[in-house]
Amino acid sequence: MALLDFGRSGVGRLSKAPSPASRTPLGKGQRSTWWRSALKVAGTLFVLMGIAIGILTLRLALVLWHGVLY
What we know:
Layout: H1 6-9, H2 20-23, H3 33-69
């Protein structure tokens, strides 16, 4: 499972000539591809930071518990 699948969303590809649909303004319910990709990257970073903080908290708890026992 790829965390960042840029190939399917077309973010990494550059087209030679923009299509007429891409030149029209975005509607109310539409968001651009780069905005969605940026949100996915930010969400992934938040998840990874949460996992890192959880691991550090568990390590601190184990070190403190070891100090209490011995």
